[in-house]
Structure formats: structure tokens, C-alpha cells
Write a structure and sequence with these properties.
Radius of gyration: 35 Å
Order of helices and strands: EEEHHEEEE
Number of strands: 7
Shape: rod-shaped
Distance between the termini: 84 Å
Structural class: alpha+beta
Length: 149
């Protein structure tokens, strides 16, 4: 073979001959090819599509715990309000104006004061904005343990 630089017809690589019948590739061998990078990006995308939904679902129990905790704190606030005023608050705005506040993202979805046979009961639901679950309590009739509804 002769000395010089030429392009290999089948491989499309630029080759050089050093006069000793040895091929030397002039292609820079450092780095990754576009195909290798594309393959890595596809794998990362597949892993992310599996992991992200799992991470968002794992937050729901934390949101539910916040809502349940707020519902239990409502009971304490109700008792304090009842001691001061002789009755339970007629609306959630009455309760909130007495100084009680719900955690960020938690709101009442139901607040009803019912009187049955001279006994007042509060029927309440709270829900965190990022949770599909609403927590229910009817106090004092059903006790102090929130239930999912």
C-alpha cells in the first residue's frame, strides 16, 4: 500500500498509512458515540418513568397523617371553645376565628353542628389538597379516632 490518507469505502473511517503497511485510524477514539449517549438517555428515561410515580405515591401517607393530626387537634380546640363559650362553634369560621388554624394544604370539606336529643355533635371532614383521602370524625358521638371516608 502507498503512504497517504484515504477514506475506507465500507467503514467510512478516515485511515492513514505510515509506509510500513500498517493502518492507522485518524478517528478520535476518546468520548462516546451519539448512539451510546442516546442509549443511556433512553435507559434513564425508563428508570425515571418507573421511579417518579412511586415517589409521589409515598407522600400520600404523610399528607394523610397531617390531615388526621389536624382533625385530632380540632377536638382539643373544640373543647377549649366549649369551655369558654358553653357551646361548640356553629361554623368552621367560628372555630378558626378563635385562634385555631389548620396545617398548610389541609381544609374542612364538611363542618356541621348537629343537635340530637339536646346533645351537640360535630360532623367534620378534612382533606389534604394532595391526598385523595378525606378524614371523618363525628365528635363526641363516635369518639376521637378519625376514619377515612
Amino acid at each position: 500500500m502507498r503512504n497517504g490518507i484515504w477514506r475506507h469505502q465500507c467503514l467510512g473511517t478516515i485511515l492513514a498509512y505510515n509506509g510500513k503497511d500498517e493502518e492507522i485510524s485518524l478517528r478520535n477514539e476518546k468520548g462516546f458515540s451519539l448512539l451510546e449517549l442516546l442509549f443511556v438517555v433512553v435507559i434513564i428515561g425508563i428508570v425515571a418513568s418507573i421511579a417518579i410515580p412511586q415517589l409521589t405515591e409515598s407522600k400520600i401517607p404523610a399528607y394523610d397523617a397531617t390531615a388526621k393530626s389536624d382533625l385530632k387537634n380540632v377536638i382539643t380546640a373544640l373543647e377549649m371553645y366549649s369551655i369558654r363559650n358553653g357551646t361548640y362553634p356553629a361554623s368552621e369560621s367560628d372555630l378558626l376565628s378563635s385562634g385555631f388554624s389548620l396545617s398548610s394544604g389541609v381544609s374542612f370539606t364538611r363542618y356541621t353542628l348537629e343537635t340530637k336529643d339536646g346533645v351537640q355533635n360535630l360532623h367534620m371532614h378534612v382533606q389534604h389538597v394532595n391526598s385523595p383521602n378525606a378524614w371523618h370524625i363525628k365528635y363526641p358521638e363516635e369518639g376521637t379516632q378519625p376514619e377515612i371516608r
